[in-house]
Design goal:
By secondary structure, the protein is mostly helical. It has a domain of 83 residues. 44% of the residues lie in helices and 10% in strands. It has a two-stranded parallel ribbon.
């Protein structure tokens, strides 16, 4: 696509990271959130545990927004303590870097081992 000489609201013309961030900020309030469904599922199933992995350089699904949703989906400490959040120095494809994938695999191994134990 050729660059336009005049300003355009066409999202396909977004080329710079700053423009992408501005576009993302404009879209965030309209995105659906799964936190209500997840909160309900965790209340129905007291054994359900959640591992949320996110890249610190994520622009498609910002980790801070996901973290905010998880932190605010319940005031019930029984739900909150069953959520594990992991942050990695990565973008959207957290496991795309071999070193980070190794750390994530180790974190998931710990998560699975803990998930097999009864909650106390």
């Amino acid at each position: 696509m050729e660059p336009s000489a005049s300003p355009s609201s066409d999202a396909s013309r977004v080329r710079t990271p700053l423009a992408a961030i501005v576009l993302l900020a404009a879209l965030l309030p309209t995105w659906p959130r799964a936190s209500a469904d997840l909160s309900a599922a965790m209340r129905l199933n007291p054994d359900l545990r959640v591992f949320q992995a996110g890249g610190c350089f994520e622009l498609a699904t910002p980790f801070a927004w996901a973290g905010h949703d998880l932190e605010h989906m319940s005031h019930d400490p029984g739900v909150i303590r069953r959520i594990t959040v992991a942050r990695y120095e990565a973008g959207h494809i957290v496991f795309g870097d071999d070193a980070i994938a190794g750390r994530m695999a180790a974190d998931l191994g710990k998560f699975y081992a803990e998930a097999r134990k009864p909650l106390q």
